């Protein structure tokens, strides 16, 4: 059935970003409608962050116990796969978004189901599941928070072969005997380890390196961690073609035959394609407001999320390509929702001030990310190369993590840490930690970068003894006595 409605703000896409834009606009006194075509909560809640970490965490916990003599002896078996999958199902709420809808309604937001497109100035038209249309007019703003979609490489035979994207992998109801993972970025690396620990024979195919975006010592530690779990890590290989095999009988099982450019083949029960994501800018009606924008191009926005020259149109989250991570999408969402509300109230005019509550300034200087592999990689801010590309003169200090806290934490603890320091201001502009459970070391680094805390003052931030954080003291000493 067709209908129309008017509101203050229409948010296209109800992922973590869209939900937070709407919530913050509403907290600022505006009425907001979220348009969602799939599950409210988006990729993160149902097919990305939460289910993937739920698949990883039990293996991590078990590996943690095995690293401590005296505790190791208590481990009598492996993971209970059915229990792990059931726990993961719980985190994905059984792929039912009733809880998220209840939250949205409780927060005073309206949800319209269906595929939305921008069809005019401050107008969104939604094709609803029953074949009808809802036209929504926004008094103040339309926000595009449509996320991202997987990039599928054009490989000979891939169209005919059944394959998994990260959606099928994170929602898997059974564990394949043999799994080939194509792409050794963050998603491929995490899921290769998760399935290896759940019992799959995993082959991870990397065109160049595992986690190539991270510093070499961290990459090498992670590759070694994968190999220790039995993952066959193939570096510097490409897939030539993919072939679907129909099994003749139990002795000749079917699956996917992957042909590599080194002339070898691998037969797998499942092929996971994890070769990146691109902004979901196709079929959203953006060409109307942004002529020339091709599907997959990021939606360009300023720090308050506003599309240049289109004052009523905003973007936030993965769709902008700024920092495609849930926490950064939500951070941008808080700025966007607040900016829309302040502009509507006539309290915000002109350019936004950096580091104010209407600017996602940290996107350019301090994006934290954790790779939940074992060992973990946790980084924030600039790598040394990125800092130099940004015109900074930097020095680095790096060392193996070997402090009293790490030796107590795990026998044979292997880890690495690096600080990137801006010479001119003598402040940390980047940090990377790699090792078991280093994720929780990261926020201290994020605060140091965002707060631009001088090295001389960081000296007085004394890490408690005996914790892994003592690596901070070693890093400061290494810089001071270089
Ligand atoms: C396997 C995997 C693991 C990840 N793990 C982490 C992690 O541990 N930590 C982390 O920070 N990030 C992680 N990420 C990244 C994270 O999932 C994204 O950064 C995050 O989901 C982006 O949020 P978003 O709201 O911008 O987009 P999305 O979560 O993609 O939400 C967009 C929503 O918009 C809807 N939509 C799209 N187009 C329309 C339309 N035209 N009309 C109506 N609705 C529409 C979609 O259905 C979707 O619900 C992971 C990603 C993957 C793939
Ligand atoms: N813990 C986390 O924060 C987390 C976890 C998973 C995913 N994510 C996010 O989700 C997004 C998608 O993750 P991703 O790992 O798919 O993307 P990615 O960009 O991190 O990695 C993609 C990898 O695939 C490789 N690749 C591309 N085409 C290929 C081909 N034809 N053959 C072989 N390899 C190929 C690339 O070289 C790269 O290493 C990223 O933004 C990522 O940050 C975050």
Automatic annotation (TrEMBL):
Q: Name one GO molecular function term.
A: dihydrolipoyl dehydrogenase (NADH) activity
Q: Membrane-spanning residues where?
A: none
Q: Which cofactor does it need?
A: FAD
Q: Name the positions where FAD binds.
A: 53, 116, 146-148, 318
| Entry's Gene Ontology BP terms | 2-oxoglutarate metabolic process
| Residues reported to bind NAD(+) | 183-190, 276
**Stored Pfam families:** Pyr_redox_2, Pyr_redox_dim
Gene3D superfamilies attached here? 3.30.390.30, FAD/NAD(P)-binding domain
> Locate the FAD/NAD(P)-binding domain: which residues?
8-328
This protein's superkingdom? Bacteria
Domain Pyridine nucleotide-disulphide oxidoreductase dimerisation intervals: 367-472
Intrachain disulfide bonds: 44-49
- Keywords of this entry: FAD, Flavoprotein, NAD, Nucleotide-binding
Q: How is the cofactor bound?
A: Binds 1 FAD per subunit.
Record's InterPro entries? Class-I_Pyr_Nuc-Dis_Oxidored, FAD/NAD-bd_sf, FAD/NAD-binding_dom, FAD/NAD-linked_Rdtase_dimer_sf, Pyr_nuc-diS_OxRdtase, Pyr_nucl-diS_OxRdtase_dimer
Similarity comment: Belongs to the class-I pyridine nucleotide-disulfide oxidoreductase family.
> What is the name of the protein in this document?
Pyridine nucleotide-disulphide oxidoreductase dimerisation region
Name the source organism.
Beutenbergia cavernae (strain ATCC BAA-8 / DSM 12333 / CCUG 43141 / JCM 11478 / NBRC 16432 / NCIMB 13614 / HKI 0122)
What are the leading ranks of the lineage? Bacteria, Bacillati, Actinomycetota, Actinomycetes, Micrococcales
């Amino acid at each position: 059935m067709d209908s129309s409605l008017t509101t203050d703000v229409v948010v296209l896409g109800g992922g973590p970003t869209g939900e937070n834009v709407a919530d913050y606009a509403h907290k600022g006194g505006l009425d907001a409608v979220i348009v969602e075509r799939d599950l409210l909560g988006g990729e993160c809640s149902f097919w990305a962050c939460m289910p993937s970490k739920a698949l990883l965490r039990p293996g991590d916990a078990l590996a943690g116990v095995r690293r401590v003599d005296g505790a190791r002896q208590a481990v009598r078996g492996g993971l209970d796969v059915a229990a792990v999958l059931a726990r993961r199902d719980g985190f994905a709420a059984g792929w039912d978004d009733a809880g998220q809808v209840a939250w949205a309604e409780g927060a005073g937001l309206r949800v319209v189901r269906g595929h939305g497109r921008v069809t005019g100035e401050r107008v969104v038209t939604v094709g609803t599941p029953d074949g009808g249309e809802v036209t929504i007019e926004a008094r103040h703003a339309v926000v595009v928070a449509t996320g991202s979609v997987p990039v599928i490489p054009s490989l000979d035979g891939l169209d005919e072969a059944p394959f998994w994207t990260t959606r099928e992998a994170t929602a898997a109801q059974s564990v394949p005997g043999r799994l080939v993972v194509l792409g050794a970025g963050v998603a491929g690396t995490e899921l290769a380890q998760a399935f290896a620990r759940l019992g799959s024979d995993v082959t991870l195919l990397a065109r160049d390196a595992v986690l190539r975006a991270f510093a070499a010592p961290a990459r090498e530690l992670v590759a070694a961690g994968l190999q220790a779990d039995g993952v066959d890590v193939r570096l510097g290989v490409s897939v030539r073609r993919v072939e679907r095999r129909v099994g003749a009988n139990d002795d000749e099982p079917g699956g996917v035959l992957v042909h590599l450019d080194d002339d070898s083949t691998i037969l797998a029960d499942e092929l996971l394609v994890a070769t990146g994501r691109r902004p979901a800018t196709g079929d959203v009606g953006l060409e109307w407001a942004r002529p020339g924008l091709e599907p997959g191009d990021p939606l360009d926005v300023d720090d308050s999320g506003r599309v240049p020259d289109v004052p009523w149109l905003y973007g936030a989250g993965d769709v902008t390509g700024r920092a495609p991570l849930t926490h950064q999408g939500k951070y941008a969402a808080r700025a966007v929702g607040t900016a829309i509300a302040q502009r509507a109230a006539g309290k915000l005019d002109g350019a936004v001030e950096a580091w104010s509550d209407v600017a996602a300034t940290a996107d350019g200087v301090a994006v934290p990310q954790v790779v939940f592999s074992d060992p973990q990689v946790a980084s924030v801010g600039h790598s040394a190369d990125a800092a130099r590309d940004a015109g900074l003169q930097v020095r680095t200090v790096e060392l193996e993590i070997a402090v009293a806290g790490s030796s107590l934490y795990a026998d044979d603890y292997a880890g690495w840490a690096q600080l990137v320091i801006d010479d001119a201001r003598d402040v940390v502009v980047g940090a990377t930690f790699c090792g078991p459970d280093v994720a929780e070391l990261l926020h201290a680094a994020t605060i140091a970068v965002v707060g631009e805390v001088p090295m001389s003052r960081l000296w007085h931030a004394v890490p408690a003894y005996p914790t892994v954080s003592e690596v901070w003291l070693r890093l400061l000493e290494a810089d001071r006595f270089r």
